[in-house]
Design brief:
It contains eleven helices and 40 strands. It is an alpha+beta fold and 711 residues long. Among the domains are: 27-93 and 439-705, Alpha/Beta hydrolase fold, catalytic domain (Rossmann fold); 347-436.
Length: 711
């Protein structure tokens, strides 16, 4: 055989070429699991709609479990091949590891605050006998479970601060359990309450009011419709079976009831809701003079939120007659609207919260999606502004009536959450705790822009990036949105986003219709048959970022969770050419059946349902993500995320969306689903799981945008 000797230079050239080819070889996922199709047809107003993956709605079936395991095997097999995945995780762990503080609050004679030393899975509650005293660990939720998946979901001290009722949730579920602790000894009492959901604990005397459902059928805990919400009173030291039923309504199973008491425990008020917006308000005096509740405000067109009582009257924050909200004083024994006294009338800004501190009212407003605050006396006379550190978001004031000392926190995109000590008498703030983070925040800048949506409506958007950004259309961009349920997206600090910013990303967050940034009219502009406005606003935001030179479709990723997952699903199916990567998280993907699971029926106030009318069915069917995936379309690289214990938006939405997308998608872009275990909709998720999830999302996004991180 003749030997072939290549010149050294040629060998080197071929080696370099081989390396370059390996660099350019895209990771391909393993073949997607074959999901069987069943012959399920639903008929809506004479229209037949196939639902071939209906079987994936059964979260208890061996077939669903096998499909989930197979999908995760494909997804993690793909993610593990991304060369810089471990570097992303290491950087997230590094940047996450700093002390984080919550806002102090006073109960009885003690001060309390939440703190995370850095990488703890759950925040710990500390107690101080005085602000100058050494803090001691009071309650550590990290001891609830070894893996941090049991979280504190609520707490309420009794009037004198001697007892604490706290609730826990397991694996991210909305179901919670209540325990009672003796504050002095830190010992748990025998009280243990179960099957509680969408409830607080409101103390009266030697017990408290709470809301619960009946125990669900075994196997249906995470998917069955939540119906017949009831209000109970639990007396300390007794079994839950002995709790006194305060209110139930057998005529309307799909309504929720929340009971609360005023600070002095003289009034019991009950909010009745049939959806996520609008409520009726009932009130009862607790001095024994009333057996039944008095209807103070009928539902369900407006909101009525009790702040507290001033003597025999109630301060109520409402949007009744005031789309941007107002504060009124109402005599519950003479509740007719003609008798209301307006304390703080509606303003140009949107009223967000009311706090009573000292002898003043602190009113927090939102102006162009950023916080401003004003001080009033109890008669509603303006006193002065509360000077905030800059443009950003504040939390509500933590303080007490009759006491001068209060606390609040302030944050922005490049301003870590900082706690301020506040004197109401002097209207002065000083830094109380500030987080020190390993990140040069001064290298980044934020601007707020306004762009036109499809129908000409002006929409605001925050844009954050490195200073000196080149507007060459080549910047990787992460576009995040929500647009629903009157929820406002305001400037806030995110550790996870810092990883994107330091790698040259542009972060963009528009204030879409459906949110609450500009009051109730803005909210309604993105609900029911106006829902397409939300998608148009988001698509127009993408167009703006492209037209102004920030990015291009090949460098643009979109993301959102829950209702924001619906947003991503709708936009990627309507404009698949506009985005390179889509990250829909725990999304509402089946708009024809969402109301049949857990608390989904309550979302009809924003969405409407497929059973309302033929017009509503046609509208929902026209944008429902699952039903608008087309055969043979090259969709963006997609990583769907959900979790096995999500009983808010059941994972069946994401399962069916993934199966349909994998069936019909055409092209080389991966379309994967990541299904977390012992996790839910997001609340209470331990730090370790959060880091793992963002490691995978950021790695997937960067890889499919052609971004190599700087680490």
């Amino acid at each position: 055989m003749k030997r072939i000797i290549l010149p050294i230079a040629l060998i080197g050239f071929l080696f370099l070429m081989s390396c370059e080819q390996n660099k350019q070889m895209k990771i391909k996922p393993a073949p997607y699991p074959v999901a069987k199709k069943v012959d399920t047809i639903d008929v809506y107003f004479g229209h037949q709609v196939a639902d071939p993956y209906r079987w994936l709605e059964d979260d208890n079936s061996p077939e669903t479990e096998a499909w989930v395991n197979a999908e995760n095997e494909v997804t993690f097999g793909y993610l593990e091949q991304i060369p810089f995945r471990n570097k992303i995780k290491e950087r997230l762990e590094q940047i996450w590891d700093y002390p984080k503080y919550g806002v102090p609050f006073k109960e009885g004679n003690n001060f309390y605050f939440f703190k995370n030393d850095g990488m703890q899975n759950q925040y710990v509650i500390y107690k101080q006998t005085a602000l100058e005293a050494e803090p001691e660990v009071f309650l550590d939720p990290n001891t609830f479970s070894e893996d941090g998946t049991v979280a504190l979901s609520g707490l309420e001290f009794n009037h004198d601060g001697t007892l604490l009722a706290y609730s826990i949730s397991k694996s991210g579920s909305d179901w919670s359990e209540i325990y009672v602790m003796d504050v002095e000894t830190k010992n748990l009492l025998d009280d243990h309450l179960e099957w509680i959901k969408f409830s607080g604990t409101s103390w009266k005397g030697d017990g408290f009011y709470y809301s619960r459902y009946d125990e669900p059928k075994e196997g249906d805990e995470l998917k069955a419709s939540n119906e017949y919400h009831k209000v109970y009173y639990h007396k300390i030291g007794t079994a839950q079976s002995e709790d006194k039923l305060i209110y139930k309504n057998d005529e309307y199973p799909k309504r929720n009831y929340y009971a609360g008491t005023t600070d002095d425990e003289s009034f019991l008020f009950m909010s009745e809701s049939a959806g996520t917006s609008g409520n009726a308000l009932w009130v009862k005096k607790l001095d024994g003079s009333q057996d039944d509740f008095t209807l103070v405000a009928e539902g369900f067109e407006n909101e009525y939120n009790v702040i507290d009582n001033l003597g025999e009257q109630l301060l109520i924050m409402t949007n009744d007659g005031a789309p941007k909200w107002q504060l009124v004083l109402v005599d519950p024994m003479n509740p007719e609207k003609a008798n209301w006294k307006v304390i703080i009338p509606e303003k140009e800004e949107v009223l967000q919260s009311i706090s009573l501190v000292g002898d003043k009212i602190v009113a927090e407003y939102m102006k162009n999606a950023t916080s401003v605050a004003f001080i009033y006396d109890y008669e509603g006379n303006y006193v002065e502004d509360l000077q905030l550190p800059g443009i950003g978001s504040m939390s509500g004031i933590s303080g007490k009536k009759g006491e001068d000392l209060a606390f609040y926190s302030f944050t922005s995109f490049t301003f870590p959450s900082t706690v301020y000590k506040y004197s109401i008498a002097n209207n002065s703030s000083e830094v109380y705790t500030r987080s020190e983070i390993d990140f040069d925040i001064d290298n980044y800048e934020t601007q707020q822009v306004f762009y036109k949506s499809k129908d000409g409506t002006e929409v605001s958007m925050f844009i954050v990036h490195k200073k000196g950004l080149k507007m060459n259309g080549k910047n990787p961009t992460y576009l995040y949105g929500y647009g629903g349920f009157n929820i406002s997206l305001t400037p806030g600090f995110s550790i996870t986003r810092l990883v994107l910013l330091e790698n040259g990303f542009v972060f963009a967050m528009p204030n879409l219709r459906g949110g609450g940034e500009y009051g109730e009219e803005w909210h309604e502009g993105g609900t029911k048959t106006n829902k397409q406005n939300v998608f148009d606003d988001f698509i127009a935001a993408a167009d703006y970022l492209i037209e102004t030179g920030y990015t291009q479709p090949a460098k643009l990723a979109i993301a959102g969770g829950s209702n924001g997952g619906l947003l991503v699903g709708a936009c990627m199916t309507q404009r698949p050419d506009l985005f390179a990567v889509a990250l829909p998280a725990v999304g509402v993907m089946d708009m024809l059946r969402y109301h049949k699971f857990t608390i989904g029926w309550a979302w009809a106030s924003d969405y409407g349902t497929s059973e309302d009318s033929e017009e509503m069915f046609n509208y929902l069917y026209g944008y429902s993500p699952i039903h608008n995936i087309k055969e043979g379309v090259n969709y963006p690289a997609t990583l769907i995320t959900t979790a096995d214990h999500d009983d808010r938006v059941v994972p069946a939405h994401s399962f069916k969306f993934a199966a349909t997308l994998q069936e019909k998608h055409k092209g080389d872009n991966p379309v994967l689903i990541r299904i977390d275990v012992k996790a839910g909709h997001g609340g209470g998720k331990p730090t370790a799981k959060v880091i793992e999830e963002y490691t995978d999302e950021w790695s997937f996004m960067m890889y499919n945008l052609g971004v190599t991180p700087v680490y």
